[in-house]
Amino acid sequence: MTDLARPPATTPARTHPPTRVRAGRLGAGVAVGVLAAAVAACLLAPLLWPLDQSAVDLARTRLAPSPDHLAGTDDLGRDVALRSLYGLRVSLLVGAVAAGVATVVGGLVGAVAGTLGGRLDRALMRVVDTVAALPHLLLGIFVVAMLRPGLGAVIASIGLTHWLSTARIVRSELLSLRTRPFVDAAISGGASRTRVLTRHLLPHVLPRLALATTLMVPHAVWHETALSFLGLGLPPHLASIGNMINDGQRSLLTGAWWASIVPGLLLVAVTLALAVLTGRWRDRLDPRVRAELHL
Amino acid sequence: MTAATAGRRRLAGAGAVVRRRLLVAVPVLAATSMGMFALGAASPIDPAQQYAGAAVFTTSEENLAQIRANWGVDDPLPVQYARWIGNLLRGDLGWSTSRHEPVTSVLAARAGWTLLLVGTALALVLVASVLLGTLAAYRRGGWFDRALRAAAYAVQSMPVFWIGLAAIAVFALALGWLPAGGLTDITATGTDPADVARHLVLPVTVLAISQAPWFVLFVRDAVAESLRDDHVLAARARGLPGRTVLFGHALRTALLPFLTLVGAHLPELVGGAVLVETVFSLPGLGAVTVAAALGADFPLLAATTLATAVVVLAANLATDLAYAAADPRVRLDD
């Protein structure tokens, strides 16, 4: 460790870049493969699999994984692999919609703060800082509890807790754009505030906004999964990954680990692949903002 | 200028900062509580029916109306809000409708276990992430660095309750090394510290592992960055041993921003604790919160959420002050 003839901090990084680049490409390739397989499986499963995902069969409960049931059956005799695919579909759909809602809320707040500036800007950013200091999950639980658990409540809960980073991104982006010469040119050309905002500023913010939304999807999915796991999310009959892990908890103590571990594994694989790909997109868009975008 | 006067000068602004932060925190907390109250008022649940429970089917409409009148739930909203806040400020947190006891006694009985879980996990994650992150930064690009980063990214996408269930499946059920849940053995009559410690090993480790990625990656990047700093190069040029340079120079400068990260990640840690407590059936605030949410128990939910917010805001303020105290370059005049 005390070998100073070869400064360890820089040398390995300099001799290894080819491996790292290859590793990065490999990671992205695997991620694309995982996502493509998951999407294909979600879309094709209903056509190719001659089983009903919600068919209860009390004679075949808690069967271990076998060629008939690739991931075994749960405590009601439902096929875990098939139900996981349906659950993934529900979770991703809810996650995407909720991420969209959060982006709209955050985008509006950020746009108001960034364009109007002044006192309103400071006040809004204080609100953002404070909501960031509240535990997301507790706030989410509170929202769901007051609205009664259900699809709408879950989406509202995610939307109300996940808009902060988008608001920050949009605001700082607008603040830096406002000082650019083309904005001055547009204003001196007689463009109205709305026109400057919609025709000149917004197109520059859109790529960043799209990226922020995509980065948000895994977080939204995790939030939904956590709520559903607690029994506060989607209605129990709807197969979502969180509901399945919650159901599987009952079988865990009798040794049927697959009922909750398999759906979770699928979720981890897909969200990890999503995170890897959006991470590469982010690095390509602007390598300098890495720290800022850590949600 | 002695170190003492320098320190005093640096912290001269501390009182003003605390005052200014409170000036902001109070209206913000008021707004938060107002928002929560509005949401509670918009909720479709009738507190009187909820109080009556299953007896609602046999309770007469007059009795329900009497309960409503006693509680003043038909008063105008601002009146109700003022009454609620007034009670909160006097230390009366209300009556928990899901547990049928005062909210204060629920908090008093439960908060300690949650603090123990969160505190131990935080200590564990700090020590582990500083060690692992520094090692990874020292040989960055090497196999350990790459493996650690890959593991961190993987763990980041694992829900904490899923890690918990997997840990139960492996360490409690398959191997039988540790208990699967609870705080004490079911045969135990009191809380024997050794028994409690054995029951807390899995929950604390699971919570720490789930929170570790951010901290490990942060330490790794910060140390890697500061290994390139001038003072580190200078120390190396003076011929100091590598270990001294790494821990004495590079790590020390890298650790300062770490304090801010700890403050910013406390809310995550609390959320994780709620889930971990549910998985391992620990008698902390998490399980109570979930039960309260299922029963739409507004007083208890509002109290736990607001109390957590106050604790987290106070901890953030403390980290900022500690940061200023530790770093001579930071001045406390905002």
List descriptors.
heterodimer, A: 295 residues, mainly alpha, MetI-like fold, 11 helices, 72% helix, 0% strand, elongated, disordered C terminus, B: 334 residues, 2 domains, two-stranded antiparallel ribbon, 13 helices, 75% helix, 1% strand, globular, cell membrane (chain A), Peptide/nickel transport system permease protein (chain A), transmembrane helix (chain A)
Describe this structure in words.
The complex is a heterodimer of chains A (295) and B (334). Chain A is mainly α and 295 residues long. Chain A has a single domain (35-42, 71-294), classed as MetI-like fold (Orthogonal Bundle). Helices cover 72% and strands 0% of the residues of chain A. Chain A has helices at 11-15, 17-48, 80-116, 118-133, 136-147, 151-161, 164-178, 181-188, 193-229, 241-252, 258-285. The two termini of chain A are 35 Å apart. Residues 1-22 and 289-295 of chain A have low confidence and may be disordered. Chain B is mainly alpha-helical. Chain B has 13 helices and 2 strands; from the N terminus they run H-H-H-H-H-E-E-H-H-H-H-H-H-H-H. Chain B has helices spanning 3-10, 14-42, 47-52, 61-71, 77-89, 103-138, 143-156, 160-174, 193-226, 230-237, 242-279, 285-294, 298-326, and strands spanning 95-96, 101-102. A two-stranded antiparallel ribbon of chain B has the order 1-2. In chain B, a hairpin with a 4-residue loop joins strand 1 (95-96) and strand 2. Chains A and B meet through helix 1, helix 4, helix 5, helix 9 and helix 10 of A and helix 2, helix 7, helix 8, helix 11 and helix 12 of B.
